[in-house]
């Protein structure tokens, strides 16, 4: 179906729905690892870093709005924009999406396996992870966006209810919550500042926003206003969710001097603390929310990043933009879903090779600066229609994002090399 035909079909204003592409991209980006980072920050510094969570949401609103504005204003995908900047973008993005998918697939399946094993110990963490990966494959294989969006909506509801509920039962100190909005960096807290601000809401999945807009049917500048509202509301909801996580860390762990593990294991630790403090039901409900957070990221990546890969390969091969092989349900879309699902199962059994983790860490650290800088380039050039180019405030915000993510990049590369 041509872009003109699709545009004709969406001439009328889009129908308002509870879940849109914005909440899909935000929910996909907030996985179990992000929750643990926020939880640990709350347990270490109380409310002192609350402002970082708010800043992280604002930064992601700026970048996702830029990605959405590019797609709607030009009718081109973000990868088509990158490729217009030179071959160097493909030389970076190609290896990155392949390595990232292999390592992320294993991490995502393990992340879903942990809470399921705690809830239903009849299977191991690895076995439950494999089941989750196969379930994700089945949900997105056909490429039907409507079904995918409803599944993400249900998972978001579970995430939100469980974490906000956990925050509510801890009876937070509202006075301290307000003081946490004052930008201060506590001693030894710089790494947490960078991680918390950078980790609220995803990395490569931010760039998938334009593809989800297309799948939704929002494909022309006529949809610009609804896109901006969708994006802002989505990250406002995500911000509340992350703030609730920090409240739990501050009230339940910081005040009691309780430490939790890093990595996904930290959420299992928290479920035990909740069970001890408020009863087994509270711990079980939280495990369900943990699984929902991990599963939403898995399903979102299985769909969104597969769309990006299909577009990348199709563009490199010179396929027409409307070629089915470049779209949801097409050959390359399904090939990447298989890549995310089956080869990473080897890592679940054999562990993670150091060289691959190093490549994953280094390539991944560069992605957010890459996204911020290329959006600045695209949205200030004649590649974007004049009325939709960056204004002064957009440029200022994106430059700040680029600098913040560059600092985070340096820190992540240093950690990856040191841990190799």
Number of domains: 1
Distance between the termini: 48 Å
**What profile does the largest beta sheet have?**
none
Query: Using only CA atoms, what is the Rg?
Result: 21 Å
Total beta strand runs = 0
Element string (H = helix, E = strand) = HHHHHHHHHHHHHHHHHHHH
CATH topology annotation: Amino acid/polyamine transporter I
Number of helices: 20
The helix-and-strand class reads mainly alpha
Query: What form results from the Cα inertia axes?
Result: globular
Tell me about this structure:
- The chain is mainly alpha-helical.
- The protein has a single domain (18-418), classed as Amino acid/polyamine transporter I (Up-down Bundle).
- It contains 20 helices and no strands.
- It has helices at 3-9, 21-29, 32-45, 50-74, 78-83, 87-119, 125-140, 145-169, 174-179, 190-199, 204-207, 209-216, 224-254, 265-278, 280-316, 331-341, 344-350, 354-365, 367-378, 392-418.
- Helix 2 (21-29) runs antiparallel to helix 12, helix 4 runs antiparallel to helix 13 and helix 18 (354-365) packs antiparallel against helix 20.
- The chain is globular and about 60 Å long.
């Amino acid at each position: 179906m041509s872009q003109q035909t699709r545009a004709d079909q969406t001439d009328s204003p889009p129908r308002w729905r509870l879940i849109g592409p914005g909440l899909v991209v935000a929910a996909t980006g907030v996985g179990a690892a992000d929750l643990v980072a926020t939880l640990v920050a709350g347990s270490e510094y109380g409310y002192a870093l609350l402002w970082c969570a708010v800043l992280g949401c604002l930064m992601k609103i700026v970048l996702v709005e830029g990605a959405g504005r590019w797609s709607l204003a030009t009718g081109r995908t973000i990868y088509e924009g990158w490729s217009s900047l030179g071959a160097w973008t493909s030389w970076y993005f190609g290896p990155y999406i392949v390595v990232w998918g292999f390592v992320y697939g294993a991490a995502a399946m393990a992340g879903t396996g942990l809470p399921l094993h705690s809830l239903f110990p009849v299977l191991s963490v690895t076995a439950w992870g494999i089941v989750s990966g196969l379930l994700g494959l089945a949900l997105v294989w056909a490429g039907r966006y409507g079904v995918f969006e409803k599944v993400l909506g249900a998972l978001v509801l579970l995430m939100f209810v469980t974490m906000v509920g956990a925050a509510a039962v801890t009876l937070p100190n509202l006075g301290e919550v307000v003081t946490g909005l004052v930008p201060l960096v506590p001693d030894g807290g710089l790494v947490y500042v960078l991680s918390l601000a950078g980790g609220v809401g995803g990395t490569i999945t931010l760039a998938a926003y334009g593809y989800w807009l297309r799948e939704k049917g929002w494909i022309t500048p006529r949809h610009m206003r609804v896109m901006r509202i969708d994006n802002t509301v989505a990250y406002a909801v995500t911000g509340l969710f992350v703030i609730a996580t920090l409240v739990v860390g501050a009230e339940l762990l910081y005040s009691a001097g309780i430490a939790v593990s890093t990595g996904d294991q930290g959420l299992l630790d928290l479920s035990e603390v909740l069970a001890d403090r408020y009863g087994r039901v509270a711990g079980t409900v939280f495990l369900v929310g943990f699984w929902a957070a991990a599963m939403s990221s898995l399903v979102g990546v299985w769909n969104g990043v597969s769309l990006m890969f299909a577009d990348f390969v199709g563009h490199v091969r010179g396929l027409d933009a409307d070629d089915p092989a470049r779209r949801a349900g097409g050959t390359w879309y399904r090939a990447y879903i298989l890549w995310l699902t089956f080869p990473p199962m080897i890592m679940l059994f054999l562990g993670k090779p150091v060289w691959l983790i190093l490549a994953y860490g280094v390539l991944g650290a560069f992605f957010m600066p890459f996204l911020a800088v290329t959006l600045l380039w695209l949205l200030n050039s004649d590649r974007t229609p004049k009325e939709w180019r960056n204004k002064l405030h957009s440029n200022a915000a994106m430059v700040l994002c680029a600098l913040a993510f560059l600092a985070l990049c340096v820190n992540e590369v240093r950690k990856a090399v040191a841990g190799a």
